[in-house]
Amino acid sequence: MVINSDKPIFIQLAEVIKRRIIDGELQPDDKIPSVRELAAEFEVNNNTAMHAVEYLSRQDIIYQKRGVGYFVNASASENIVKQRRENFFNNTLPEVIQEMKILGIGIDEISAYYNNTSKQ
Amino acid sequence: MDSLKRILNLVKRELTVPFALPNKSFFGDKNTYSSSGRWLFWTYSFPFLMGLVDCWWQSSSFTTAKGILYGGLFTVAFAFMIMREYLKKTNRAFVILLPASVQEKFAAKIIAYYVIIPLTMLVGCTLGYYIGALAGGFITNGQANFAFDWEFFAKVFNFSSISIGLMCMSALFLITSFVKNEIVQVILGVAVILLLMSLSLLASGIKGYADWLDFSSDIATYVVYPLISLMLLTGSYIKLKRERA
Amino acid sequence: MIEIKNLKFWYKKNKTVLQDINLQLQEGKIVGLLGKNGVGKSTLLHLIAGLQFPVEGIVTADGEIPGQRKVSTLQNMFLLSEEVPETTMTIEKFVKINSVFYPKFSNDDFTSYMHEFEVTDFTLRIDKLSFGTRKKVFIAFALACNTKYLLMDEPTNGLDIPSKASFRKILRLAVSEDKLAVISTHQARDLQNILDSIVMLDNTNLLLNADDWQITEKLYFGIATGEENEDDILYSEQTIAGNQIVKVNKDASESNLDVELLFNAAFNRKDKFKSVFNIK
Known about the structure:
Radius of gyration of chain B: 19 Å
Low-confidence stretches of chain B: 18-38
Order of helices and strands of chain B: HHHHHHHHHHH
Number of domains of chain A: 2
Number of helices of chain B: 11
Structural class of chain B: mainly alpha
CATH architecture of the largest domain in chain A: Orthogonal Bundle
CATH class of the largest domain in chain A: Mainly Alpha
Helix content of chain A: 55-70%
Mean pLDDT of chain A: 90
Largest interface: B-C, 31 and 29 residues
Shape of chain B: globular
Number of helices of chain A: 5
Helix content of chain B: over 70%
Strand order of the largest sheet of chain A: 1-2
Distance between the termini of chain B: 30 Å
Shape of chain A: elongated
Mean pLDDT of chain B: 69
Oligomer: heterotrimer
Distance between the termini of chain A: 30 Å
Number of strands of chain A: 2
Order of helices and strands of chain A: HHHEEHH
Low-confidence stretches of chain A: none
């Protein structure tokens, strides 16, 4: 993970875990590495690793088994996709629309592009 | 018992760190030390040379001088052994913080430098001298005299010289406890050793005290010198307790 | 826990190195000890290890005074100096001879740390190794001793970039909940993300002692928006990305602690910095 200084590191760490879940590297009910292991792997401090884990827990990506550790939620993949869809419609798309308006790009151009790339 | 195990390992550690002289010049490059082989060469070659040379110089006055020189070499060799641990500040810090009590560390030093090393030096130097004498005899007379000169041996290695030797060792311990600069350590060490060994010469000038300090007198050998050793060692021990790096 | 109360120290009477140092360091953390060159970081580490004795005040580790050098205390303390010991012994001999004194030493740990550092030939003589490699050997040894307290003085000096990353990894793995590591450094970037808390020394006194989250709670590290109150900015620096600043975190924003910027902020506006952290 190359650390980007703009985004809080704990979020970047969380995204890596999410990517591993989407890629299938981590399956539902798999145990994720301990806070210390995560801190070591990503070369961050305990607080950051803990923060990332709590963040993932709040987003229902992982659940905690007291005394044992954190595990991948059965519905983690769906939750991630749902969150990314939300993010797309709340953040990414408005930015694109904004840019389109500035550049005078119409929806037809987008449609055509979409159709062309879908064929590949 | 844990303590005993630590002492034994400390002794092992003292003996395992190669005893060596700097390899560049006499006090040479502080950072590189030669292996045990070079040390062996330095310390054992002299008795060998002495044995070799002895064939041409068979006078009694030289025998005493020989004894003193022999003993002096002994102690100078020890001086280097004691010194090398202190030569680098970080080594010193590492040793100070090595998990063993001050008593255990001191005990290990006594065992290593008062018992084991002197014994090995004794055997080595004697053998070196013996072989040198054999070679010398062979060169001068064409035949080797295999008889071992017990008389010389007894003359040099009797209780008096042992007592003086131990006193010199104690002085070296103290010097290395207080003095950090290794060159100063060597100069001071050699100076103090020569001073101690010539005490009897000095004492002969002081009326009434000649006996006490006479090299071979009983009172010197069994009381005065050991007392001086004890005082010096106590000083070293006290300094060791508060050693810093 | 390491506790330092009212510590005062000097080497020579008219030149105090440290004074009024009050510090409590808890297990489970990697603490970064920062300060300018010569400020007394090494000295503080030596005082914690018991290599030096306080002139005034007291230093304790688990209630024991390290200066008394009890075996039990020493077995739980390891100080790795900036300059590592040079010896003609081979790596394996050195480990064999010296590991005996540290009851929690693990050969498996040593081997795996050395593996991470890519030093595989243990038959090499230590004095023949390059400075960087020698450092790696002693870092691995220090960590493998598994002492409760691990003090390191500029451990990353002399390490190449991949080795610095390896060091971060193995240090993080080694420092479990029951251990404490205090690492002094002036190469802030080498360690920054892995530090759990920061202790800063300045001009004989303690300038800061705070956890990473406490710092980012009070200070924001990032790009200026242009709407900041002048007085709230402790430090600013023009970069390609924009105006990098350190400012008082008034709106509880999340940001990543940048140790170098923190350092600059502390010295740029010392009084403001002190007031933010309630330091006298």
